[in-house]
C-alpha cells in the first residue's frame, strides 16, 4: 500500500513537471533525446551547448534572432542522425570547446611520490609566455595547463603561505597566459602527495591542502578564465577518502569567492580515462558538489596517452584510444557530466600522427561530453634533451605532431 501511494505521487509529479515546469538555472533544457523541460526559469535562458545538451544559464542570452538559432539546430540534428545510422565510426560533426598545450617547467623535479627537487625547476615565466603567445596567435589554441609543484609554490614549507618570490614567478606564467585571452589551468602536480605521503591519508592533512587552494582561489577568484586543476594524477590511494578531500577543496575554492570557474576533479590510477569508471573514480567524484548542491563547472579530469602502456614515455603510438573514450562517453552521458583531457600526447612520428588524429576526431564527434584537451607538452624542455614528446615550438614553427594533428583537428 505504501508502495502504491508512492508510485501514485511519482506519476503525478512527473506529469506536472512535463506539463508546466521550467528548468532551474544550470539544468538541462534540451538536446537529442531530452524529454524534460525546454524552458528556463525567469532570469535565465536556454543556451544551445551542442546537439546533445542545452543548459539554462543565468542572464538573457546572446542577442541572436530566434529564426537563426532554430534553423541551425535543425541542420545539426539532421546531420548527426544521418551519421549515426550509416556508420559506427564517429565522424567529425562537432568540435571540442578547448584546445591547447601544457607548459611544463615549474613541476620539474617532481616524481610520482610527490617529492620535488626544486633545483630542477625550469622557470617558464618568460619563455612559457612566449610559447603561449605563439600558440594563440598562430594556432588559435585557447587553453593552457600550467603545472607546478606544491613545494615550489610554498618554498618547501608544508602548510605555509605562498612564497612571494617563487609563487611570484609562477604567477607571471599565469598572468602571461591570461593576457593571451586563453583559459589557464592552475595544476598542482603532486600525485596527491607531499614527500611520499598521501594527502588526507597519512600525509598532509586535508586542512593543509585546503589552505593551499584557499590561498590560490583568493588570488585568482576574479578571473573567469582561471581553471582550478585540483591535483595531477592521484594514484594508489583510497578513492572514497580522496573524493572526500576533493569535496573539501571544491567547497573551499567556492567559498573563497571563485564561485563559478571550472574545477577539474582528478580520479585515481593517474587519472586514466580508461579506468575512470571501473576503478570507482567516477562514482566517488560524481558525488562531489558545489556549496549550492549543483555540479556546475565541476569537470572530470582525465589523462590518456597513446603508447603501449599509457605512460607517454614511448615515442611510438599503438592506439587511438577510441575504445576507452567511447565507454567513458557513455558513462558521462548517463550521469550528465563532462570531462577534460588534460594530458595526451605522442612522439613526433608517423604512428602518433595517425592515431592522434583519430583520437581527436573522436573527441570532436563527442564534444557533448568532452570539453577539450591540453596536450603534453611544451615548456622548459631544452632542445639538447631530445625529449620525445616535445611540443616546444622552434621559433614560430610547430613540432611534427602539433602540425599534423593538434592544429588541423582544432582549426578545421
Ligand atoms: C576507504 O575508505 C573508506 C572510508 O574511509 C572505507 O570505508 C573503506 O573501507 C576504505 N577502502 C579500502 C579499500 O580500504
Ligand atoms: C584502485 C583501483 O581500483 N584500480 C583499478 C582501476 O581499474 C583498473 C582497470 O580495471 C584496474 O586495473 C585497477 O586496479
UniProtKB/TrEMBL annotation:
Describe the function of this protein: Endoglucanase (EG) that cleaves the internal beta-1,4-glucosidic bonds in cellulose. The degradation of cellulose involves an interplay between different cellulolytic enzymes. Hydrolysis starts with EGs, which cut internal glycosidic linkages to reduce the polymerization degree of the substrate and creates new chain ends for exocellobiohydrolases (CBHs). The CBH release the disaccharide cellobiose from the non-reducing end of the cellulose polymer chain. Finally, beta-1,4-glucosidases hydrolyze the cellobiose and other short cello-oligosaccharides into glucose units.
Q: Which PANTHER family match?
A: CBM1 DOMAIN-CONTAINING PROTEIN (PTHR34142:SF5), ENDO-BETA-1,4-GLUCANASE A (PTHR34142)
Report the GO molecular function annotations.
cellulase activity; cellulose binding
> Can you supply a Gene Ontology BP term from the record?
cellulose catabolic process
Q: What class of enzyme is it?
A: hydrolase
Q: Which UniProt keywords apply?
A: Carbohydrate metabolism, Cellulose degradation, Glycosidase, Hydrolase, Polysaccharide degradation, Pyrrolidone carboxylic acid, Signal
The source's superkingdom equals: Eukaryota
Q: Provide the catalytic activity annotation.
A: Endohydrolysis of (1->4)-beta-D-glucosidic linkages in cellulose, lichenin and cereal beta-D-glucans
Q: What is the lineage of its organism?
A: Eukaryota, Fungi, Dikarya, Ascomycota, Pezizomycotina
Transmembrane spans: none
Extent of the signal sequence = 1-21
Domain named CBM1 is located at 21-57
Gene3D superfamilies reported in the protein's UniProt record: Glycosidases
The family classification in the record reads:
Belongs to the glycosyl hydrolase 5 (cellulase A) family.
GO CC annotation terms, alphabetical: extracellular region
Question: Recorded E.C. number(s)?
Answer: 3.2.1.4
Q: InterPro entries this protein is in?
A: CBD (IPR000254), CBD_sf (IPR035971), GH (IPR017853), Glyco_hydro_5 (IPR001547), Glyco_hydro_5_CS (IPR018087)
Record-given protein name: Endoglucanase EG-II
Amino acid at each position: 500500500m505504501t508502495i502504491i501511494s508512492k508510485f501514485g505521487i511519482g506519476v503525478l509529479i512527473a506529469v506536472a513537471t512535463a506539463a508546466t515546469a521550467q528548468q532551474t538555472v544550470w539544468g538541462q533544457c534540451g538536446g537529442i533525446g531530452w524529454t524534460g523541460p525546454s524552458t528556463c526559469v525567469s532570469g535565465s535562458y536556454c543556451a544551445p551547448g551542442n546537439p546533445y545538451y542545452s543548459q539554462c544559464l543565468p542572464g538573457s542570452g546572446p542577442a541572436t534572432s530566434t529564426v537563426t538559432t532554430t534553423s541551425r539546430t535543425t541542420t545539426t540534428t539532421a546531420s548527426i542522425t544521418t551519421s549515426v545510422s550509416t556508420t559506427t565510426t564517429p565522424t567529425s560533426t562537432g568540435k571540442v570547446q578547448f584546445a591547447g598545450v601544457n607548459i611544463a617547467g615549474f613541476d620539474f623535479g617532481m616524481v610520482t611520490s610527490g617529492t620535488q627537487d626544486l633545483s630542477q625547476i625550469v622557470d617558464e615565466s618568460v619563455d612559457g609566455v612566449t610559447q603561449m603567445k605563439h600558440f594563440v596567435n598562430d594556432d588559435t589554441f585557447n587553453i593552457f595547463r600550467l603545472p607546478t609543484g606544491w613545494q615550489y609554490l610554498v618554498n618547501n614549507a608544508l602548510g605555509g603561505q605562498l612564497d612571494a618570490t617563487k609563487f611570484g614567478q609562477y604567477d607571471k606564467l599565469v598572468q602571461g597566459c591570461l593576457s593571451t585571452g586563453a583559459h589557464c589551468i592552475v595544476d598542482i602536480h603532486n600525485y596527491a602527495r607531499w614527500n611520499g605521503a598521501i594527502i588526507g591519508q597519512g600525509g598532509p592533512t586535508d586542512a593543509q591542502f585546503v589552505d593551499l587552494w584557499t590561498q590560490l582561489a583568493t588570488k585568482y577568484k576574479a578571473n573567469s578564465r582561471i581553471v582550478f586543476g585540483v591535483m595531477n594524477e592521484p594514484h594508489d590511494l583510497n578513492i572514497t577518502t580522496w573524493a572526500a578531500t576533493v569535496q573539501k577543496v571544491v567547497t573551499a575554492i567556492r567559498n573563497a569567492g571563485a564561485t563559478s570557474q571550472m574545477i577539474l576533479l582528478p580520479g585515481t590510477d593517474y587519472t586514466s580515462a580508461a579506468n575512470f569508471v571501473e576503478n570507482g573514480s567516477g562514482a566517488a567524484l560524481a558525488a562531489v558538489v558545489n556549496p549550492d548542491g549543483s555540479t556546475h563547472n565541476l569537470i572530470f579530469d582525465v589523462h590518456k596517452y597513446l603508447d603501449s602502456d599509457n605512460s607517454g614515455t614511448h615515442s611510438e603510438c599503438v592506439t587511438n584510444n577510441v575504445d576507452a573514450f567511447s565507454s567513458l562517453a557513455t558513462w558521462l552521458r548517463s550521469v550528465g557530466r563532462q570531462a577534460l583531457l588534460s594530458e595526451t600526447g605522442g612522439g613526433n612520428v608517423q604512428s602518433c600522427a595517425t592515431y592522434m588524429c583519430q583520437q581527436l576526431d573522436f573527441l570532436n564527434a563527442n564534444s557533448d561530453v568532452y570539453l577539450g584537451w591540453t596536450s603534453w607538452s611544451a615548456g622548459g624542455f631544452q632542445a639538447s634533451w631530445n625529449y620525445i614528446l616535445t611540443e616546444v615550438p622552434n621559433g614560430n614553427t610547430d613540432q611534427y605532431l602539433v602540425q599534423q594533428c593538434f592544429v588541423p583537428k582544432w582549426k578545421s
